[in-house]
Specification:
The chain is an all-alpha fold and about 90 residues long. It contains five helices and no strands. Helix content is about 60%, strand content about 0%.
């Protein structure tokens, strides 16, 4: 880090920074990041890094929706809709 960014950081901060970048770039990376950090429980990883990925998750969702829209234009079909309950006030019938 000293050569590339003119920063001096300790090993623990470097490790934390790498994990944070990984989770922010890929919101689903908890499973990959956890064992690399040496955590025996995914809960430990999530306790330290959960919430830092909100913007990345929004960007990821936006990409997925854009891809679905493009796919539907190419195929002429709409993306699958979630099943909706009919007449929810009447017991679903």
């Amino acid at each position: 880090m000293r050569k590339r960014a003119s920063l001096e950081i300790n090993v623990h901060l470097f490790r934390h920074t790498i994990a944070k970048i990984g989770v922010e770039r890929d919101p689903g990376a908890y499973l990959a990041v956890s064992p690399v950090l040496g955590h025996t429980s995914l809960d430990t990883t999530m306790a330290h890094y959960l919430g830092t990925e909100a913007r990345a998750a929004a960007r990821h969702l936006d990409r997925l929706l854009t891809e679905a829209e493009e796919d539907s234009k190419e195929t002429g079909k709409m993306a699958p809709k979630h099943h909706r309950q009919r007449n929810p006030g009447k017991g679903g019938k």
